[in-house]
Batch of 4 targets.
Target 1
Amino acid sequence: MTKFDGKSCLITGAASGLGRSTALAVAAKGASLILTDIDDAGVQRTAADVRAIGGVVHLAERADVSDYDAVVALAAKAHAEVDSVDIVMNVAGIATWGTVDRLTHKQWRRTIDIDLMGPIHVIEEFVPPMIKAGRGGHLVNVASAAGLFGLPWHAPYSAGKFGLRGVSEVLRFDLRQHGIGVSLVCPGAMATPMVDSADIAGIDRQAEAVQKGVALFMRHAVTPEQAARSVVRGVERDKYMVFTSPDIRVGYLAQRYFPPSYNLAMRGLNWAMGRYLDKEPVSSKV
């Protein structure tokens, strides 16, 4: 089992949502924290809340994980506080959706830079010192149901999350010899600020049909606190695949063992999502 008590833990995306809730959950388990997010005010609020419950925050620093130099600077500051981090949690990410004829190159690039290269930058700078320290440890990469399934409109998001799943699949075996566990977290619907901030190409977010779709999504969403508890349990039990809601587990099993049902479900979702589209695709590309 992986214990949080007495361990140092890096959490990216700690300003809100799952990152914030995970920070509070692992602090309650006795871990000391290094927190980062692109939202400096938000990450400082999380740090203050952790300290308010008696937790230890070594560092709370703004950093854009898609910027390699910023992650290098963050790692230097973190390693000035602790010789190495025991648990690394890659939580930061964005969501970008849209059909291929509506997505811009900028949307594709930004999503890959944050959702895939961001975690890779963190792994580059924090995992080698963990290996060198020789104390073992744990790496947590937060993917998504979109890292398992061919969900409609999710091509950029899935590119990042499937890529992160591949990195995790390799590292779960590569790092075993060093006593470092790897967990791949695959959340489904979750009530976080990402629901409102998701970039949907060519869609009017205020349209009635879209608002109904968001409401339906929220009815099936777990809270960030519930998801954080699942993450903590998964890490403590050294589980590789961690699901934050039972529907994603069921879908994953269906995909593996009943492919025809998975194919029908994806086709049905595509038909349903098509009703939200305007008749003409976006003509301008940026």
Target 2
Amino acid sequence: MIDETLRLGRERRFLVLLGLICLALIGGALYMQVALGEAPCPLCILQRYALLLIAIFAFIGAAMRSRRSITVLEGLVVLSAIAGAAVAGHHVYTQFYPTVSCGIDVLQPIVDSLPLASVFPLGFQVDGFCSTPYPPVLGLSLAQWALVAFVLTIVLVPLGVSRNRRSIR
């Protein structure tokens, strides 16, 4: 029982770290938006929502005490990361093929009508186009970094859970 408690404590610490990383990524995107003038497109905003959902589910999971509730929230983290990876993948594709539209005419009203767009318009309101080329950060675009973060989350969360729980049973 003590061994299981220690292992679940490790998972909870990992979830807190994951939540903090997601919030830091959103903070970095806000910095680039405000300080560097990089306007977010609809796909950028949807990626921010995915990161926010991952952070929320990770923090809630870290507060849970039972293995089952932590597992459910880790599942929600992975589902949010899959959705984020799909959006980021489409964004990367749009940046490689700028003639493809991100659907600003279709997506902008939908994204701007989501609740956080009215509560926190600076961070969650559409202001740009998906194909706009911004300078890369360490050789990758923001969409590519987001895709890397989502894929790492999709891979590392289940891998860590299975590794951590293998000897519990």
Target 3
Amino acid sequence: MKFIIVFAALFALTMANKDAEILHYENNVEPENFSYSLQTSDGKTAEEQGHLENAGTEDEAISVRGSYSYIGDDGQTYQVNYIADRNGFQPQGAHIPVA
């Protein structure tokens, strides 16, 4: 499952610009936690850490914290910080409206 999350994030970032090169990539996948960081030549960055909560119980779940940034069509850099856990995906960013 963790491999799929990391692979999906990397695939999404690199497919957005087929000419972009990966400048930095680092990952660590263990049985109960994972982390990765990535930087591409077109200005995208991503990093994420996750861990397994309540391992071996009915309440077992993955809790993830991360961020990504990219340069928009307007030339500005946008950054999103997020948490993904039992409460769903919770993004925060200066450009994201708050309810």
Target 4
Amino acid sequence: MAAYILRRLLLLVPTLLGILLLNFVIVQAAPGGPVEQMIAQLEGFDVGATSRISGVNDADAQLNTLEFNEYKGSRALSPELIKLIEKQYGFDRPAPERFLKMVKDYITFDLGQSFYRTIEVTDLIMEKLPVSMSLGLWSTFLVYLISIPLGITKAIKHGTAFDGWSSLIITTGYAIPGFLFAMLLVILFAGGSYWQIFPLRGLTSDNFEQLSWAAQLSDYAWHMILPITALVIGSFATLTLLTRNAFLEEIHHQYTVTARSKGLTEQQVLFRHIFRNAMLLVISGLPAALLSILFTNSLLIEIIFSLDGLGLLGFEAVIQRDYPVVFGTLYVFTLLGLLIKLVGDITYVVIDPRIHFEARTTL
């Protein structure tokens, strides 16, 4: 197992480089980069834009003001000012050189500084991470807490009325996108058109710091109910059907017939024999499910409920062409995804010791 883990860790390096290179090429080829946006703002008399062109020294700062004032009437920028803008954003160097520098910095987790927020990308990610972690961990926990017992019950009661009407509910939940259900919750329970029961914005109230620990816990749960409900509704259907099908397949295997013939009760057959084999696929998918909820499904939920997390951060960075934030979050997401995939493979061995990755000759 140790040799397999070592090989997978070594494979992370070229995989990560390949993903970063592909996205670097795609993003660089996209029109409307930060240089173009800054030039458009300056030509449109956006005086605030000049404050973001911070040169290396005072001479550069003076050049900003002089060039802007000189061409304020004609809305034309001199080549010197354009070069200064390119230098400010690092576009005065060739693309291969910029990519190699980025990789070199990323090795030490130096993710650079945001173009528009004047803050280190690492600090920005750490600032937004608690929101996304709250959504991801609680949603994943509730999805598994609901889906596994429900899937097992559906498998045991296959073909009954319970299986029929529960399948109708699951299919409805699967068909409704999570963000659409979130909007429905806002309309019904967050003051949209009916009741003002839950807050619409934020993770905590404005007076959160002045509350007692019990009141803080209650306030936190009060804010999280609607977004977590929307995420759970959009995610539990797939896992429920996966659990049901996995148990149905195992129930009809020969070893269950043999176990029953030995006098074991249905409960003993289920939890001693069927459970471990059926849950292998379900539990091993837990890391991937967490990653999906954490970095994919939560984007629109964060926007709807004004939760300032990683999903919203990445979306805004792409819109603004804030390349350090785009590549920094991409780097973190990719690295976590590869590591979580490795954790998922290790989980197979934890659940079923009969699996040995050492016997595999290829990755």
